[in-house]
Structures are given as C-alpha cells and as structure tokens.
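Tutorial, part two.
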Amino acid sequence: MRVAVTRAEPGADETAQRLIARGAEVIVAPLLSTHFLDPPPPSGPIQALLFTSANGARAAARSMAAFRAAQVLCVGDATAQAARAHGFSNAMSADGDAAALIARAAQLFRKDAGALVHVSGADLAVDVADALRQAGFSAERVIAYRAQAVDALPEALARALRATPPLDAVIFHSPRAARIFAQLATDAPTDALDAACISAEVAHAAATLPWRRMIVAEAPRDDALVRAILP
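Running the prediction step on this input gives:
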C-alpha cells in the first residue's frame, strides 16, 4: 500500500514509522511547516496549561519553561506524552478531541483558582479558551506557534499522484491540511484514492473533493488512524 502523510514535522515521521511497521510504502509530504513564536507569558496566576497538540507542548517548553510544574491537560495521549517528554511532568490526557478536553477541564478545575491557559497555534479549529470562559472559567489563549501552508504540493506528493502504480491513500491530521490539499490538488485523481482522516471534522474538510473512500479513525489518535488504514 502506498500512502502519503501530509502531517507537519516532527509528527509526520512518527506516523510514517507506524505505517512502515505495517508494511506500507510511505511518502512524507507535509502541507504545513511549524514556526515557533515568542509570546508574552500569561497575565496572571495559572491553574493549568491546556495543550491541543504536541506542537503546543513543544512551544510551551520553549517560551513557558517556568511553568513546567503546573498541571497540564492534553487533548490526547500522544500530546500528553510529548508534554512529559518536554518536562511537563504533571500532564494528563483527555483522551479525545478539543470538545473532550473542554469537558474534562470543566470537571477537573475550579472557576476561582486561577487561569486555564490554552497554548495554541495561530489557527484554531476550536477556541478552547473562549468555550471555557463561556462556562465561567478564567481562561486565556497564548499563541505560541504558527503553522504556515505550503504554496504548492511537495514534489514527492505531486509525483506520487501521477505515478504508476498509483497512490492508495492520503492521510490528513487536521482540517486545515485537508483544505490546503483541496486547494492545491484540483487536478489530482482523488476519485481513485482513499482519504484517511483522524476525525470526522477532518473528513468534513476533505469531503470537498471526490474520493474513492473516506476512512475515519475510531478515535482521534495517530495510532487509531494507522489501524484504520492498515488493520
């Protein structure tokens, strides 16, 4: 099976290794590149940090190292593992998506015990801090990195889309990556390919193109996505 991974580095290599271990031939073709920023620190006392991506954990390790002892709630296991690897030893997982993280934060934390700080990228699928403020919490968002879209399909992916034997599937880890692909691959024979998506939200973004089959992971985790493609 020939699979293209559109995830940004360093996560793309993680996904590629999982696929290779299951016998796939992998083209790594990130559609986004990550640029870390130097945001000002949170404005007041912190109750917990919230990470919705591994890049949020990496960004916080660069710009918010003074808060490594804080409680940390992560969207899923992979993000929690990344947070712990970057020194946030009190990292927990909500084991889901952004909605699960918001719900878990509302259960775990107090409304009168300091701010919940969402360390995020510049582009958001779900505004976690706003949702928590609406629920009565003190919450703020720190933009700590920016994911920049490519201007054209990576050459390896462009060649694979025209190759014989053909590509079997394109993997999407975010709605934004799916939208970028749709904008740049207007002539691609997607009706002969599978779109493999980490969540229903990502699948919705990918569905603007015709696909042979839409594959959606049972849980919004990379390992679940790989199993959905190669059981």
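The chain has two domains: 2-31+150-229, 39-147. In part three we will examine how such features are distributed along the chain.
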